[in-house]
C-alpha cells in the first residue's frame, strides 16, 4: 500500500469545472471510466475534497482511448522517494553470456499497487460525468515510477537471472534448462506477491528480445530497428531546430558506431554560435552517408566481468574519444561501447599531453561501472603517459597530470603504448566529437582540475605584479612563444625536428604546461632568457651555498641548465668560498623543558643589510624577532628586557657565545636578570 506524502507548504488546487472533451470521444470516455471503476482502480466521490485535477484524453492508434489525469499541481508538493533507477548500461551488462530470454510485462503495473485511504482524496479528478478518485497508484504521480521499481525489485530479491526496469521483467539463462528453472522461480514468486502479467505483451524462451530500447541476443546488443528506421526516414533538416532534432536522434546510436561522430561532423558545424545557416553539399553528403551507416550498425558485444578488458582513448585538439573492448572466447577483441565528446574552452587550452591524459581519465570514469573492481588494460598512442600515469612518483608530476592520476587511483590497470595507426577508432571519435552538455561527473572533473591548477599558481612565491611581469616576458620571448605552441598543439615525433634552442627542452616536454597564461614546468615557472640573470642573483642572495640555492630555485623557477649555473655562480663567489670552510658543529639533542619560557635561545642574524635578534622558546617553538640598529651588548640587552617584560624572565638563556653575549656588561645583566646563562 502506497501513501502519498506532501511537503508542509502544500497548497491545495481544485478545478470546479471539467475540461472539455471532444463530443465524438464522450462515449469512449464514459466506457473507460466505467471499466476503471469495475477494475477497482477508481471510484466515484461525492464528498468535498481540497484537491481536484482535470483530465486529458489521448486517442490510441487502435482506436481506444487513455484517460490521463493532470496531477501537475499535486506533483509540485509530492515528497519523492528519490530511488535511483539503474542505468540502462548497468542493467544490460548483467545479461552477459545469456542465450535465452523471457520478457514479462506487468498488467497496468501501477494499478496493482493499492493506495492508502488517506491519499485517496488527493487524487480526485473531475470529468464531464462527475468526480472520481483513485484507489490504486495513478500513473500521473511523480513518485509512482520509483516506488513501483522499488516494489518490483523487492519482489525479485534473491532470484538469479532476472533484471527489472519500470514494469518490464527480463529472465535470462545461458541454457534452456537454466532459463526454464529461473523462469519457474520468478513466476512462482510473482504469484505469491499477487502481481498480474499481461500475457499479450509477454515473450517466453526467445533468442532475441527487445529490452530497454535495444535488441538483446547471444551475439550482443543492437539498436532497436524501429528507432533506426525513425532516423533514416527523417527528412532533410531545413533549419537549426531540425538539425538539433536530427542529431538528438543520431546520438542514440552513437555507441553502436565509431563513425557516427565523424560522419555527422559537417552537420554539427551548423550548430556553432558563429555559423550561418547553409545546408550545402557537405551536409547533404554527410546526411546520406549517415543513412547508409545506420542501415547496418555495429553489433556490440555483451559485457562480461570475467573477460579481458581494455580501454583505448585519444584526444584531438578539440575532442575526446574512447572505446571499451573485451576479448571474446574466440580470441577476437570486440567493442562493448563507443564514446566521444567535445572539449570545453578551458580543456582546449591544455597542453596536448594533458589532453591525452584527460581522454584516458574521462574514458575510465565514463566506463567506471564496467571497470571498478577488475584489472584492465589502458591503451594510448602517447608514449610519455606510460610513466606519467603509471610508475612515476606522484610528487614528481605536473599539476594537471597529478590530478588525473589521483582520479585514476581507484582503478586497477596497466597502461601500454600502441602506435597511432592501431588506435584508429578512438582517434576518429576524438576528431569528430559529439557536442552535448557535460555530464555532472565530467563537469566535476574539469572543476577539480581547474581548481587544483589555480591553487598551484596562487601559492607560487610571487606577487600578482611579478607573475604579470614574467607572463609578459614569456610572451615577448621567441623561444617561450614557440614552446607554448608546442605544449598546446603537440611535439614532433623526433627531437631533431626541433631547432637547437628548442631541443634543450625536449627531455622535459612531458612536464611543460600552461596555467593562467604562464608557461610552467610542473609547479615551477619557466624563466625566459631576459630574466634569468636577475633570477639567478635572487636565488644566490644570502650566500647560502650550492645545496640551499638549488633547493630555493626548485621551489618556483626553472630553465634548462639552472642547477649548473647556480653551481658556477656559487663557485665563483668569494663570500661563499669563505663560508664554505666554516664547517658547522654537529647538531645536539636538547631535552624538552617542562613549560614555556623555561629555556630560550638567542642569536643574531642579518637580512637585507639589516641586523636582527631572534629569541626562540624551546618548549613552544615560539619566536620573537627584534630589529637591531646597533649590535652592541647594551642594545641587545634592551631588546631582551622588552621581550622578557612581555613573556617573563627565562630560567635559562642559550647563546652561541657571540661578542654581545660574553662581554662583562652582559655578564652583569645575566647575574641580575637570569638564573642561568649558557
From TrEMBL:
EC number: 3.1.26.4
GO molecular function (one): nucleic acid binding
Start and end residues of each Reverse transcriptase domain: 39-216
Signal peptide: none
UniProt xrefs under CDD domains: RNase_HI_RT_Ty3 (cd09274), RT_LTR (cd01647)
First-level EC class: hydrolase
Occurrences of domain Integrase catalytic (ranges): 592-671
A GO biological-process term: DNA integration
PANTHER family (alphabetical): INTEGRASE CATALYTIC DOMAIN-CONTAINING PROTEIN (PTHR37984:SF9), PROTEIN CBG26694 (PTHR37984)
Family: Belongs to the beta type-B retroviral polymerase family. HERV class-II K(HML-2) pol subfamily.
Name this polypeptide is given: Gypsy retrotransposon integrase-like protein 1
Record organism: Takifugu rubripes (Japanese pufferfish)
Amino acid at each position: 500500500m502506497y501513501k502519498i506524502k506532501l511537503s508542509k507548504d502544500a497548497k491545495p488546487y481544485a478545478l470546479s469545472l471539467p475540461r472539455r472533451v471532444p463530443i465524438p470521444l464522450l462515449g469512449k470516455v464514459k466506457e473507460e471510466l466505467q471499466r476503471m471503476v469495475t477494475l477497482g482502480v477508481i471510484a466515484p466521490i461525492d464528498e468535498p475534497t481540497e484537491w481536484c485535477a482535470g483530465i486529458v484524453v489521448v486517442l490510441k492508434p487502435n482506436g481506444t482511448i487513455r484517460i490521463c489525469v493532470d496531477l501537475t499541481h499535486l506533483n509540485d508538493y509530492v515528497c519523492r522517494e528519490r530511488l535511483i533507477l539503474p542505468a540502462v548500461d548497468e542493467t544490460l551488462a548483467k545479461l552477459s553470456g545469456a542465450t535465452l530470454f523471457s520478457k514479462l510485462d506487468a498488467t497496468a503495473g501501477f494499478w496493482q499497487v493499492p493506495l492508502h485511504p488517506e491519499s485517496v482524496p488527493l487524487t480526485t479528478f473531475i470529468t464531464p460525468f462527475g468526480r472520481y478518485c483513485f484507489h490504486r497508484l495513478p500513473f500521473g504521480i511523480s513518485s509512482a515510477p520509483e516506488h513501483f521499481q522499488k516494489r518490483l525489485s523487492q519482489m525479485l530479491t534473491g532470484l538469479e537471472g532476472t533484471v527489472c526496469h519500470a514494469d518490464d521483467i527480463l529472465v535470462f539463462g545461458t541454457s534452456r534448462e537454466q532459463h526454464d528453472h529461473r523462469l519457474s522461480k520468478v513466476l512462482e514468486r510473482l504469484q505469491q506477491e499477487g502481481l498480474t502479467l499481461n500475457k499479450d505483451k509477454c515473450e517466453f524462451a526467445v533468442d532475441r528480445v527487445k529490452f530497454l530500447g535495444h535488441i538483446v541476443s547471444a551475439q550482443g546488443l543492437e539498436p532497436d530497428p524501429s528507432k533506426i528506421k525513425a532516423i533514416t526516414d527523417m527528412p532533410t533538416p531545413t533549419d537549426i531546430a531540425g538539425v538539433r532534432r536530427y542529431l538528438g536522434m543520431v546520438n542514440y546510436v552513437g555507441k553502436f558506431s565509431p563513425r557516427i561522430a565523424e560522419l555527422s561532423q559537417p552537420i554539427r558545424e551548423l550548430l556553432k554560435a558563429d555559423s550561418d545557416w547553409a545546408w550545402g553539399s557537405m551536409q547533404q553528403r554527410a546526411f546520406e552517408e549517415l543513412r547508409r551507416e545506420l542501415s547496418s550498425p555495429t553489433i556490440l558485444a555483451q559485457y562480461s566481468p570475467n573477460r579481458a578488458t581494455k580501454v583505448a582513448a585519444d584526444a584531438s585538439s578539440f575532442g575526446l574519444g574512447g572505446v571499451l573492448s573485451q576479448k571474446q572466447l574466440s580470441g577476437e577483441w570486440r567493442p562493448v561501447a563507443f564514446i566521444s565528446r567535445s572539449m570545453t574552452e578551458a580543456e582546449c587550452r591544455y597542453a596536448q599531453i594533458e589532453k591525452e591524459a584527460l581522454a584516458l581519465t574521462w574514458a575510465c570514469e565514463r566506463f567506471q561501472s564496467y571497470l571498478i573492481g577488475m584489472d584492465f588494460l589502458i591503451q594510448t598512442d602517447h608514449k610519455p603517459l606510460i610513466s606519467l600515469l603509471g610508475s612515476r612518483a606522484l610528487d614528481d608530476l605536473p599539476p594537471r597530470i597529478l590530478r588525473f592520476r589521483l582520479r585514476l587511483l581507484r582503478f586497477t590497470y596497466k597502461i601500454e603504448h600502441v602506435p597511432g595507426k592501431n588506435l584508429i577508432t578512438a582517434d576518429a571519435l576524438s576528431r569528430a566529437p559529439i557536442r552535448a552538455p557535460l555530464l555532472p561527473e565530467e563537469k566535476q572533473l574539469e572543476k577539480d582540475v581547474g581548481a587544483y591548477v589555480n591553487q598551484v599558481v596562487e601559492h607560487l612565491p610571487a606577487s600578482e605584479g611579478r607573475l604579470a611581469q614574467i607572463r609578459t616576458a614569456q610572451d615577448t620571448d621567441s623561444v617561450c612563444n614557440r614552446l607554448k605552441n608546442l605544449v598546446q598543439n603537440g611535439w614532433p615525433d623526433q627531437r631533431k625536428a626541433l631547432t637547437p634552442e628548442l631541443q634543450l627542452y625536449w627531455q622535459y616536454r612531458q612536464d611543460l604546461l600552461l596555467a593562467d597564461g604562464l608557461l610552467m614546468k610542473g609547479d615551477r615557472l619557466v624563466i625566459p632568457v631576459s630574466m634569468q640573470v636577475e633570477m639567478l642573483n635572487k636565488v644566490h642572495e644570502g650566500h647560502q651555498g650550492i645545496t640551499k640555492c638549488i633547493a630555493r630555485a626548485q621551489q618556483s623557477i626553472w630553465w634548462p641548465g639552472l642547477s649548473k649555473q647556480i653551481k658556477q655562480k656559487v663557485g665563483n663567489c668569494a663570500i661563499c668560498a669563505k663560508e664554505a670552510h666554516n664547517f658547522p658543529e654537529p647538531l645536539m639533542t636538547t631535552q624538552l623543558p617542562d613549560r614555556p619560557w623555561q629555556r630560550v635561545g638567542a642569536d643574531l642574524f642579518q637580512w637585507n643589510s639589516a641586523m636582527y635578534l631572534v629569541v626562540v622558546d624551546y618548549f613552544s617553538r615560539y619566536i620573537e624577532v627584534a630589529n637591531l640598529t646597533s649590535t652592541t651588548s647594551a642594545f641587545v640587552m634592551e631588546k631582551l628586557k622588552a621581550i622578557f617584560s612581555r613573556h617573563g624572565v627565562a630560567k635559562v638563556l642559550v647563546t652561541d657565545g657571540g661578542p654581545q653575549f660574553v662581554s662583562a656588561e652582559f655578564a652583569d645583566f645575566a647575574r641580575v636578570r637570569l638564573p642561568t646563562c649558557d
